[in-house]
Structures are given as C-alpha cells and as structure tokens.
Amino acid sequence: MRDDERYPTVVEPDAYPIPVIAFPGPDIQGHDKLSAPEKDTHPPSDESGLPEVKRVYGFRRKKIILVTVVIVIGAVLGGVLGGLAATGRLGNSFEVLSSIPSSIANSPQRSGPIHKTQRSVAASISSGAEGSDVQVFYQALNTTAISYRRIVNDKSKAEQEASLSIEPAWGTPMAAVAINGSDPLRTQLFYLSVDSSNRTRIVEATFECQGDSGSFSTVSNTVISDKVDRLVHPETKLSALRLGSDLLRVFYQKIDGSIHAFGRDDESGWHDNRVRQNAHPGTAIAAVAAERKAVHLFYVGLNSMTLRVSIYDDRLGPKVASAEVDGTPSSDWRPTNTLAGIHVAGDGSFRCYWSHPNNGDIYSYWRDDSRWIGTHDDCWGRVEGGFAGVGWSDQVGLYYFQDGELVVSAQDDKTWQKPVVV
C-alpha cells in the first residue's frame, strides 16, 4: 500500500489569526511602554501547512466542502505530500524535486568578507544551583572561523576559536543547545557548510569544557543532513531545541519552503520530520519549549509575510493550524529578520524577540493565555548583526552585535539594563 493511501490527507486553511493586543499598563516583563504593529486585516489562508487527518484505524473523519477546482487540486496534492510526511521519517521518500530550482540555486556566500547584517549569533545555556553558564558563538566579518565566549555567572571568559574540521559557510546561520547541568559542560553547535558540488549541508559540532576553563575541546564534527542535503534550502536559518538529555530537535527549511526538524531521541541517529509548509524562503526560525507538550515554533509566513507560531506536542506533531502573532505589513518582514525564542521559568512566559530590519530596534511578543502582546523597551539596544537569547529563572540575556561589539541586554526580575559589551 502506498503512503498516500495509508495516510489520506487534505490541506486545511488557517483559522483566523490570534490578534496582537497592547495594554496601557506595564507587562510581566517590566516594560512601561507597549506597542503593537499595525494589524494586517487579511487573514492568511494558506500557511497552516497542516493536513486534516481523516479516518485511520477507526479515528473519525472530518469533511471539508471544496468549492473550486483550484482548491480540489490543491487538496489532492496536499494529501499526497502530507501522506508522505505522516510517516514520521521521510528520508529520501520526500525528494520529489529532481533538481534545485534556478531561483534558489545560489548557495551561501562562497567568499568574504560578509556584511555586518549577515553575521549570525547563537547562544546556549546550562543553569543550576550554582548559577548560569552561557556559551555564545559568532563569526567575524572576514573569516569563516567561528569564535565563542563562555560566560559564567555574568563573567565572560576570553574569546576562543572553535576547532572545526568541516569549514563553515561565510555568514552561516547558527543554533546552539547545551545539556543542562552537564559535568563536564557539553554543548552542541549547528551551522551550514557548502561542499565541492555547491550543496548546502547542516553540520553539528559537539564541545566539552572542563571546570571553569574558557576553552572547549571538540568531541565530534559531522554532517547531519547526509540523506537530504540536496533539499536543504541554501538560505535556510537554523534553530535547535533540547527537550531532555536525549531529546534534540534541529529545525531548518527545505527548498520547497517547508520547515523540517531533524530529531535525535537516542543513539540510533537522526531522523527527519516535516513540521510546517508554506514558510517564507529564508525565514528566521525560532523554537522554544518548557516541555514536550508545548513546543512553540515561530517563523514568517509565505504569502502574508507575517510572524506566525505553531504550538504543538512534540510526541504528536502539529495537529492544528498555525496562528498569526503579528500582522505587521510585509515591508517590515524580510529574510534578514532575526528571531529569538525564549521561555522564562520564573513567570512561565513564552517570548519571541525580533529586530527591525531598518533600524535594528528590538521588539518582543509574549503570550498571556491566548493573547500575544507586543512590547518594546528603551533599554534595549540596536542590532546591527546577529541576534540570540537565553532565559533562566527570572532572567533573560539577549546577545547581538552593536557598533561592532558583542553586547548583552540583560533582564533581572523584570528590570532591563542597557546593553553592555561582553
């Protein structure tokens, strides 16, 4: 039996978006100035990326009346592709494109230097009774080498260069996760590399650090996209999420615009799952969760070009349509936008920070029950390149480059400090 027969599906349009709400009083992040961008009044209709599940093994079917031939054709195609994705491990079975379309044939930049807006920053954290241990990774503008700083209880170690056997791409996006409470400290970095055939690959590097040293030793450095690397979008961004010591997810975009996640649940290796379809090419991706049943995935939609969020149980996968977080007009959303998703245990909030593409101003959305609230704080600096964040207890750290320096904007118990050089 073919996969599309075993898992019949149709594409379900999005529900109406959840509005962004601004209140005149202070919010839980300690801001006294709240703002929400202008709301887009056109609800997106094609960005949920979700197949509706019909009756399989006794489960109840849902019926949708399709009123146009275009929708019928779209539903059939969505059913076939959705059925392939429903297997949970796509591997080569989803490689329906025989060649990379010419419109996206350009891989990451092959030579340098890069512009300051092309720089990426990644941050990971291990926290516990002894405080916080933050690891920040970034590239200089004139080299492919990746540097890092270890910051223990707000005290920064000297800058070091990561020892990597697989050369990173110029201006590569990066994502990092640490094993919380690991001893010795163990953290993982994900980045892009370009091979001799001009194909984009996703690479993993695992580092260890003994005691209070500021220098990491490289445990492994391998390509994790071997089976699907020809389908990795050359402009993909990356986000990594650790849901436990043995549960790891790495989110990326394929050339068809869909967002996928490499998953690793044990030592058996990586598997690939589709999470969303119809994302804007080159969209920033931010994934954050406090537990497996509430993964928050932020990205920019394909046609509306607005910020969207998919909230789902990692064990089940997305079962409902994604929702619009921000209805900002499309001129405010570009592939160069950067996102940072953070969960703050102290107040239980989920937050998504982003920098404005024109002036680098930082904005935030946080969720209160079913509402997303837009905020801005004058203590935040201006991002000229790279953007990452971490949260622990009641504290938040936003790391980015400003005036050529790596800086941090820190929040401690609802109070934000002006950016300081790391």
From TrEMBL:
Transmembrane portions of the chain: 64-86
Record bears the keyword NAD: no
Annotated region described as Disordered, given as residue ranges: 23-50
Annotated organism of origin: Clonostachys solani
Bias type Basic and acidic residues, positions: 29-45
Keyword Transmembrane annotated: yes
The family this protein is said to belong to: Belongs to the fungal fucose-specific lectin family.
Entry protein name: Fucose-specific lectin
Keyword annotations of the record: Membrane, Transmembrane, Transmembrane helix
InterPro entries, per the entry: Fungal_lectin
Pfam families referenced in this protein's UniProt entry, alphabetically: Fungal_lectin (PF07938)
UniProt superkingdom: Eukaryota
